[in-house]
Write a structure and sequence with these properties.
The protein has two domains: about 1-275, 3-Layer(aba) Sandwich (Rossmann fold); about 285-375, ANL, C-terminal domain (GMP Synthetase, Chain A, domain 3, 2-Layer Sandwich), CATH 3.30.300. About 30% of the residues lie in helices and about 35% in strands. The chain has helices at about 10-25, 75-90, 105-115, 130-135, 150-155, 160-165, 180-190, 240-245, 295-300, 335-345, 370-375; strands at about 1-10, 30, 50, 55-60, 70-75, 95, 120, 145-150, 170-175, 195-200, 205-210, 210-215, 220, 225-230, 235, 250, 255-270, 270-280, 285, 290, 310-315, 320-325, 350-355. The strands form five sheets. The protein has a seven-stranded mixed beta sheet with strand order 7-6-8-9-10-11-12, sandwiched between helices. A six-stranded mixed beta sheet has the order 3-1-2-4-5-15. The longest helix has 15 residues, at about 75-90.
Length: about 375
């Protein structure tokens, strides 16, 4: 059986109403229009109908991969909402500060629908601390939540009003990319309660909170790759059976999503502890040695002023490939190379530092690594 697919503009009020109908089955499945990055390949035409189980289709531009359309069921979305509420101390009222064509923004609306609360919505566009603080003052429920990317959290913690607004929240979910340790420590010092989330559109958003799988989510590592299973998994990629079969593998009746991330899973008395170390495709071969760009980036981001620095690959006639740092804050290359070499070995030392006025970003708030990589060549 199928049902119609409705495309709506990325207007929160419109999306909220359409999403409510998509989740309860009274309306068509939903796809929210998203801006297409310059140079992105043209997507395939959309079907007029989708499998009955599909309630939401999320288009992902990605920071390193080709676009895909992730098909999510109502069951997966509501399972994600229930698991998040359980892990966060209960349902509550949400502030929407992220675009609604991304899964993190959509989840704010899904969780509001599940909790039967009215979300407070910020105006779309550039994140503004004053606007966020004003919006936060409108929250009147006992439990208050929001989802942010690290750059937004960092902006809040730089002003007194931003800190005061952040303290009003029962919990701030921070995801989309790794949250630098200095930023986490700063939040703790200021009394701001944050939870680091890990997940993707394919897992209906964050399904690992502070390293712990939530709800029925289970993790494993196969040949160095982190894989996830549970009720939050997507149905697959709309109109792309080959990619679906590659990324969603079934073993002994259980479907596992291959994340493409490297990491580890440790058994604890309470369950599992997941640590994500990087991307499989972030590993370069420099002078015959493997170098994880994520590891290099992690060391650099621990330095003062470098919490948003990005490390990308660049071709090199002598070494094959080398790490290159793209940052908005100048840093001495010689000192940086010495520090990286001491921690990760000389092959991981960056070849150069590119200083830019502003880091290239995707609309989701993640670094645009493809553009940064072009800057580094």
């Amino acid at each position: 059986m199928t049902r119609p697919l409705r495309v709506v503009p990325a207007a929160p009020a419109t999306v909220l109403d359409a999403l409510r109908e998509a989740l309860d089955g009274s309306g068509p499945a939903l796809l929210v229009e998203s801006p297409r990055p310059a140079g992105a390949p043209s997507p395939a035409p959309l079907p007029t109908a989708v499998p009955r189980r599909v309630a939401l289709v999320v288009e992902t531009s990605g920071s390193t991969a080709t676009p895909k359309r992730v098909a999510l069921s109502a069951n997966a979305l509501l399972a994600s909402a229930a698991a998040s509420a359980q892990a966060s101390g209960g349902e509550g009222q949400w502030l929407l500060a992220l675009p609604v064509h991304y899964i993190a923004g959509l989840n704010v609306l899904v969780r509001s629908i599940a909790a039967r609360t009215d979300p407070v919505v910020m105006a779309p566009g550039h994140f503004d601390v004053e606007a966020f603080a004003t919006a936060a003052e409108r929250l009147d429920a006992d439990h208050r939540f929001t989802s942010l990317v690290p750059a937004q959290l960092g902006a809040l913690l730089e002003s007194d009003r931003g800190v005061a607004a952040a303290r009003r929240f029962t919990r701030i979910l921070v995801g989309g990319q790794s949250t630098p340790l200095p930023l986490r420590e700063r939040a703790a010092e200021l009394g701001v309660a944050i939870t680091r989330t890990y997940g993707s559109s394919e897992t209906a958003g964050g399904c690992v909170y502070d390293g712990v799988p939530i709800g029925a989510t289970t993790a494993r590592v196969v040949e160095g790759e982190l894989q996830l299973s549970g009720a939050v998994l997507a149905e697959g990629y709309l109109g792309d059976e080959e990619r679906t079969a590659e990324r969603f593998v079934r073993q002994a009746g259980v479907v596992w999503y291959r994340t493409g991330d490297t990491g580890s899973v440790t058994a604890t008395p309470e369950g599992q502890l997941v640590a994500v170390s990087g991307r499989l495709d972030d590993v370069i071969i420099s002078g015959g040695l493997k170098v994880s760009l994520a590891d290099v980036e992690r060391v650099i981001r621990a330095l003062p002023g470098q919490t948003d620095a990005v490390v990308v690959r660049a071709a090199d006639a002598r070494w094959g490939e080398v790490p290159v740092v793209v940052t908005t804050v100048p840093v001495a290359l010689a000192e940086l190379r010495e520090r990286i070499a001491a921690v990760l070995g000389s092959a991981a030392s960056p070849a150069r530092v590119i200083v830019v006025d502003a880091l290239p970003m995707l609309p989701s708030g993640k670094p645009d690594r493809r553009t940064a990589e072009r800057l580094a060549q």
